[in-house]
Amino acid sequence: MLDLAGLGKRFGEKVVLRDLSFSVAPGQMFGFVGTNGAGKTTTMRIAMGVLATDVGEVRWHGSPANAAIRRRWGYMPEERGLYAKMRILDQLVYFAELHGMSRADARASATEWLRTLGVSGTPSDRLETLSLGNQQRVQLAAALVHEPELLILDEPFSGLDPVGVDVMAAALRGRVEQGVSVVFSSHQLDLVERLCDAVGIIKDGRMHAVGTVQELRGDNRAVRYRVAVDTDGGTESGRTGGGTGKAWAEAVPGVTVLADDTDGTLVELAQGTSEQGLLDAARAAGRVRAFAPVNPSLTELFREVVNGDAQAPSEAATSREEARA
To answer: Which of 51, 187, 281, 304 could bond 45 through an S-S bridge, CB–CB 3.0 to 4.6 Å?
Structure first.
């Protein structure tokens, strides 16, 4: 278990982290998201010991993280930290040996990760001869080559094409299935939502929400449905000759129409309003082509936090109840 407990950091008069806390369990992929300057990179650097925290503590399995513990971790900075003119295999072996691997084991592991990640070229190529996407794959290989117990990755998917994203995602998921903890930051929120077991949203150096995407949605959020109805004599969009496809929904008590387009009518149900009543009204209006609940995406949840629409907890949210803030 990785625990970041009450981290605080300032640079001069600028406060970068404010009582920031979260935990990552073994075999969990944790997505760390926030706006530029929110404090993600500073948090990761403190976790790795690159920066010292002013207050708080980084713990691994309950013990304060030290150099010996961090030697068993893998780190991928946002800025590439490899040697451009050094041969690919040589530098991966070098990094593995720094983490305590024998040269033979390091060479075998480096060769396997270059193959798994689909790095183009040959192991004897210099890094600078590779495309930026392939350099990114080598950077991940450098974080993986010593078989770490924890991976901390800062924007690992940056600059990758869709195939590269799939390859890297599969590699990370494979490590998670082996019990490795993975923390990564990304601005690709759809990717975070798809890959991660838990998500933390940071704003102004403070963790504002932590949990699964479902937990972040909360139980008290208004229920929304998208309904597509072919009204009598209507078209595929559900619109009749002189009216609109939303007219039937506007007449249902406790239902607010949020949008109406060719995909159907998006409605929000007031607390206590029955979904069955909505369905009955739709069936009375015509042939129901679609009737499904609509949950907010991680992108929408993120916007709520950064725009101040969601209520922030007084201290870092780590429990299910706090995550609903």
So the answer is: 51
Instruction: Yes or no: say if 208 and 202 are a contact pair by the CB < 8 Å rule.
Output: yes
- 283 beta partners: none
Q: What is the pLDDT of residue 144?
A: 97
Helices (H), 56-196: 67-70, 88-98, 103-116, 132-144, 162-177, 189-195
Closest CA to 198 of 14, 10, 27: 27
Given pLDDT bands bounded at 50, 70 and 90, which one contains residue 81?
Answer: confident
What is the Cα 308 distance to its own chain's centre?
Answer: 20
Helical residues (DSSP H) of 145-212, grouped into ranges: 162-177, 189-195
Three-state DSSP state, 63: strand
Q: What is the rounded distance in angstroms from the CA atom of residue 278 to the CA atom of residue 251?
A: 10
Distances (CA, A) of 55 to 6, 25, 313: 7, 23, 20
Strands 181-185 and 150-154: parallel
Q: What angle do CA 168, 45, 110 make, to 5 degrees?
A: 40
Length of the chain: 325
**Helix, strand, or coil here: 318?**
coil
CA nearest neighbour of 232 among 280, 282, 275: 282
Cα–Cα distances in Å, from 51 out to 31, 42, 86, 275?
A: 21, 8, 27, 52
3-state SS, residue 83? coil
Longest dimension (CA), the chain: 78
In this structure, what DSSP letter does residue 81 have? -
Q: How far is CA 210 from the centre of its chain?
A: 11
Domains detected in the chain: 2-216 (3.40.50.300), 223-293 (3.30.70)
- Write phi, then psi, for 220 (nearest 5 degrees): -95, 0
* pLDDT tens-digit series, residues 142-156: 999 999 999 999 999
pLDDT in tens, 7-64: 999 999 999 999 999 999 999 999 999 988 999 999 999 999 999 999 999 999 999 9
Contact 166, 173 (CB under 8 A): no
